[in-house]
Each structure stands twice: as structure tokens, then as C-alpha cells.
Amino acid sequence: MMSKDAKVIYSSIRELEIPKEQLYLHDDEECPCGSGKKYKECCKNKEDQNPIASKKPPEVILMERMRKGLQQDKVCLHPDKAHCRGKIKEAHALQNHKIISLLASADNHVIMQDPTRQPIILDSNPKHPFFAVPFVRVSGNKATTQTCFCDVHDTISFKAIEAGAPDFDPQNEEMKFVYAYKAFIFEFYKQQHLMWMMRKLFSEKPQLFSRPEHVAEYRVQSMRMTEFQKIKKHYDSEIMNGTHNGVETFVVEIPHEIQFANYAYIAPEFDLNGNKISTIDKTNMMHRIAVTVLPESSKSYILMSCLDTEMEFYSSYFNEMSNAPLDKILFYFNIVLPLYSENLVLSEQLWNSQNEEMQAGLTYMANLIGNEQVGLSQTVGMALRNAARKRNFDYSKRVGFDLFK
């Protein structure tokens, strides 16, 4: 019989499997280029435009295009298009004058991964390249910005939590709704942009997608956009109605000001004790939670939100959080956030308080994707299970880069 660890790993691998028949493109399916035509009538026999002389693998080409494209893709994601006004601005996912300002240095800089910079290729193996976006100093005015709201809608959409608003109130439903929406919509923007870039790359270089693993990436991204669109429909409806319903939020209060912030929209694989969380429904759709970590002047918060229709996947997770000691929760997020989120924003003080080995470890975890991320996620799950099995495990001794130091 398999051990519990082996069963969890096997279950995770099975969930991530794509049926073999979906690892190649079918003649009668919609062409991945986005033309709306059938594949056989569009790009099936199309030659690559300007064959690539570069030996860079498709993953690197796509990432480089993503980096350049994020600076050019400007769209307002607010549902009320009729009242869009002003330029599409660089909106902050984490508020500049309430969160970023608390973390910024005297010259207004923070430490984070800058997706607009050239990634560093650490392993140029053509089959399994590994490239990393390093943590660098970024101006507070540029930190966590995306061009995804017009001037008017950026102002009104997030007014409840922006500069001038009261400190976060765990009982305020509007605040919790807005934080959840903000974490979701900024991730939606990136995923939508990635889908658009994949389609554009396919239309120019269809032969790049002849390998099954690249078709699999396209399938996963297509499914992800279907999942995200369903959530966006709910938020759009509430915003147009001027209501803040249908979102459940669990709040963890930390009794001191932390030196980092984060936003993410993720499907955590394991709970506090390393037990697997079932986040995929019978239709093979994945369900995620919005996670925001924010400091304030005398305390800090971790917010976890999902639609109330998704509580069947996360009610046990939230209940477990409500009964766990704070040190256990912080231990958990200290090893989970770097693996699942690419939106960590740190103060220079926190970054410089850790040695080079810890800094390198955080950079490594934050850049893992694909099988490497899955493998480390299984290791994290095992570490959580091992800790839970020990009667008097000291959760105050966090491993790796200590975000909550």
C-alpha cells in the first residue's frame, strides 16, 4: 500500500494530466490564433513568418514578448465601458499611498520582481530552460502597476481602500470585497495578456506549437481563461449594481506591522497540515482564492477570499485557519506564498536582513513553473505533514526567507 505522501503526490499528478487526445490540435477545433476559423482552414499548413534564427526555446520567446507587451497592452477592465474617461493609467494592485509607502525606503523604493526587465537565463537547456526574474529595487510609483484601468475607474473602483480611507476594518464588507476584486482583476489582466500573446505567437510561428508540451500549455491557458471569465462575470455584476455580495473573506490579524505585502489569486494545493485541498470540480474547472497580505501602521492582515459559491472547496480550509495559532498560519504562508505568488513586495530593510543564501532561495522559489513547481509543491506538502505529525513542533521557527520577520 502507498504511504499518505505517495498518495497525495499521485493524486496531484493525476489531476494535472491532460488527456493524450488533447496534446495535439484537431482539424475542426477553433484555431489557436484566435481568428474564429477552424484550425484546418486557418493555420494548419501555414508556414512560420520570418523563421526564427534564435535558438531560444518558445518559453523564453513568450516570456520576452510578455515583458515587452505588458508595457503596451492598455485596457480598462471595468465593466462600465460607457463611462471610461481619461487615459489608461498605471494602476497599483497594492495601494501606493497606503501599502507601498509603508514599505518604501527614504528614496521611495521597494524590492520586488520587475516583470518589465530582461529575465536571467540560469539554465539554457533547450528542453528544460530555467529563467528567472530577479528581485530588484523598484520605484514605489511603479511597484505592482498594470495598465488595466482608465483614470476615472481606477479612482472610483478602489476608493474604499485608497489613501484617505480609514484603516482596514475586518467587519467592513465593501473593503473586503474591493481587496478580493483587486487581487483577482490584476491577475486576470496578466492571464488575459498571456492568452493574447500565445495567440499572437501562434499566428506568427505555428510550427513552434507542434510539440505536445506546447499544445498542453495552450490547453491549460484556455481553460484558465474560462475559469477566470466566470469569476469576472460575478464581480462585474456586483460592481454594476453597486453591491458587494457573494464573496466570502477570512481575515487573519497580525498584531504588528510586517515588512512586505502581496496579492495573489491562487489555488493552494495543501492546507495547514499538508492535507490536499480539492480545488477542481466535476467539470474539471479549478477554483481559486484571492489572497492579499497588507501591513498597516500598528498591525497587519492576511485576507483570503472566494465566491460564496466556491465555499464547498474552501470552507474546511477557512475553518482550519480559524482554529490554528497565529505562528502556524505564518509558518504556512511563509513557505506557500513564494511558491504560488509572483507579486511579493518587500521593504529594503527586510531584504537586507536576510543573507545571500536566503535571498537566492526566495528568488528560486518565486520563479519556479511547470514540473519544477509541482515537485517543490509536493515537498512543501510533505514538510507541512511532517510538522503536523510532531506533537510539539515549534511553528515560530520559520524556514527559509522569513517574510514575517
Secondary-structure element pattern, one letter each: HHEHEEEEEHHHEEEEHHEHHH
Helix content: 40-55%
Q: Give the percentage of residues in beta strands.
A: 5-15%
Any idea what the radius of gyration is?
A: 21 Å
Tally of helical segments: 11
The structural class is alpha+beta
Looking at how many chains there are and whether they match, the oligomeric state comes to single chain
Note the overall shape. Answer: globular
Distance from N terminus to C terminus (CA atoms, Å) equals 41 Å
Mean pLDDT: 88
Strands of the biggest beta sheet: in what spatial order?
5-2-11-8-9-10-7
Explain how this protein is built.
Strand 3 and strand 4 form a beta hairpin. The model is unreliable at about 1-15 (pLDDT under 50). With about 400 residues, the protein is an alpha+beta fold. The chain contains eleven helices and eleven strands. Helix 2 (about 60-70) crosses helix 5, helix 5 (about 175-205) runs antiparallel to helix 6 (about 210-240) and helix 8 packs across helix 10 (about 355-365). About 40% of the residues lie in helices and about 15% in strands. The longest helix has about 30 residues, at about 175-205. The protein has helices at about 5-15, 60-70, 95-105, 150-155, 175-205, 210-240, 310-320, 325-340, 350, 355-365, 370-390; strands at about 90, 110-115, 120-125, 130, 135-140, 145-150, 245-255, 260-265, 290-295, 300-305, 345. The protein has one domain. A seven-stranded antiparallel beta sheet has the order 5-2-11-8-9-10-7, with helices on both faces. A two-stranded antiparallel sheet has the order 1-6. The chain has a two-stranded antiparallel sheet with strand order 3-4. The chain starts with a helix and ends in a 16-residue tail after the last helix.
